[in-house]
């Protein structure tokens, strides 16, 4: 019983969560401002603006893959501090106006540093949370990312209306410097010694060192379902300008966040007790409805109703898919399962805007969101084929293991 009283809210846990919040906030703040920055300052096309938005996440992906390989040997605190220093330096590159190609390279490198930093925070929190409170601790930690995904876009759209891009970049630098300052006070968590055999197997190229095969099905679903959210991040500002809905659009992601915060505690509990399908299937349908409502919104009220529905739908799909990836995997490979999930999510959010940006000029923003509503329904069909059919069997296995635990 004493295990349950192990301390969760330590100084290091709080600091790592704050750093994760800051990095995620900057990540999403820049996601919603970069496309308009590219168009207004560099006269970029819709496809180039989409690429400027999405290439950042391609960088995040590269950063994650690289960090996963070296973090065990270099040490998580060292990687975190190096990542934060590089993150601040590369954020400064936005001040250099040297053409669209330079902007794309800056975004790629800045994304790589964000990938290094967020992988380090995720690894560190897994090491400092006590085993008896692992699920609870990771749940609270992931809320810092949820808040970042909401406050970042809200601030980005709000600041774009009232201040210059240089002031937005300055805010990112100040937040990054604060994260570095508090990060330097962290203690290096105790590391498990890596045996020579394990070291050699890690150095030899093996796809299983990067990807968890059991999580691949849900990862494929995640890739396609993230396209709708990628479009909201990259193009909501343009869509809202076209429809004269900028005031409502600036609150879109705030309403989205409130909807997640209100529903996620219930959705997590339902996934554990009633199975994934009970949560995932309605959330796919809600996300599709939300995207459809965005497409037909000509009033601020309807756009914000759509934001709430998207929050309940996509917000819970994202956490649900991550939970499924972990549940399908043995505990010692849960880190790789999480990484596999994030690679698919990053790829969808990264490549989505440039693919959709190429289609948009031909069909317009309204029809683009209708198309994404259909893509979400197709993602639901894919979910049922790749995971949904096996869900009842997984619940039975889970219940059997629980009953064994009680005996």
Automatic annotation (TrEMBL):
InterPro entries: MFS, MFS_dom, MFS_Exporter, MFS_trans_sf. The keyword Protein biosynthesis does not apply. Keywords: Membrane, Transmembrane, Transmembrane helix, Transport. Its main location: membrane. Pfam families: MFS_1. Residues 12-391 form the Major facilitator superfamily (MFS) profile domain. This is MFS transporter. The chain crosses the membrane at residues 12-30, 50-67, 79-105, 111-131, 138-159, 165-186, 215-239, 245-263, 275-294, 300-317, 338-359, 365-386. It is found in: Cell membrane. Signal peptide: none annotated. It is a multi-pass membrane protein.
């Amino acid at each position: 019983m004493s295990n349950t009283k192990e301390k969760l809210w330590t100084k290091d846990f709080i600091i790592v969560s704050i750093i994760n919040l800051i990095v995620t906030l900057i990540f999403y703040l820049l996601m919603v401002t970069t496309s308009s920055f590219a168009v207004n300052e560099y006269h970029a096309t819709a496809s180039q603006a989409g690429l400027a938005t999405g290439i950042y996440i391609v960088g995040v992906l590269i950063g994650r893959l690289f960090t996963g390989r070296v973090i065990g040997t270099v040490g998580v605190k060292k990687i975190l501090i190096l990542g934060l220093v590089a993150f601040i330096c590369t954020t400064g590159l936005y001040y250099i106006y040297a053409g669209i190609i330079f902007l794309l390279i800056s975004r790629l490198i800045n994304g790589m540093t964000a990938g290094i930093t967020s992988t380090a925070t995720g690894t560190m929190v897994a090491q400092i949370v006590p085993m008896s409170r692992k699920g609870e601790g990771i749940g609270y930690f992931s809320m810092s990312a949820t808040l970042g995904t909401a406050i970042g876009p809200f601030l980005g759209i709000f600041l774009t209306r009232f201040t210059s891009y240089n002031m937005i970049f300055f805010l990112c630098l100040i937040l990054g410097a604060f994260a570095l300052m508090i990060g330097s006070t962290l203690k290096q968590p105790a590391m498990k010694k890596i045996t020579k055999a394990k070291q050699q197997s890690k150095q030899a190229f093996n796809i299983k060192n990067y990807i968890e095969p059991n999580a691949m099905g849900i990862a494929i679903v995640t890739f396609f379902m993230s396209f709708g959210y990628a479009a909201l991040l990259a193009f909501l500002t343009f869509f809202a300008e076209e429809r004269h809905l900028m005031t409502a659009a600036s609150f879109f992601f705030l309403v989205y966040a409130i909807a997640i915060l209100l529903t996620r505690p219930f959705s997590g509990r339902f996934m554990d007790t009633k199975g994934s399908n009970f949560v995932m299937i309605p959330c796919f349908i809600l996300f599709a409805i939300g995207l459809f409502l965005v497409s037909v919104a000509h009033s601020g009220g309807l756009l914000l109703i759509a934001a709430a529905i998207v929050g309940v739908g996509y917000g819970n799909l994202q956490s649900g898919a991550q939970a499924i990836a972990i549940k399908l995997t043995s505990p010692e490979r849960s880190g790789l399962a999480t990484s596999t999930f994030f690679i698919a999510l990053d790829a969808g959010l990264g490549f989505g805007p440039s693919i959709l940006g190429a289609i948009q000029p031909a069909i317009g923003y309204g029809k683009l969101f209708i198309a994404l509503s259909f893509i979400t329904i197709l993602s639901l069909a894919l979910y049922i084929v790749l995971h949904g059919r096996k869900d009842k069997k997984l619940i039975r296995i889970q219940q059997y293991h629980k009953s064994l635990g009680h005996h």
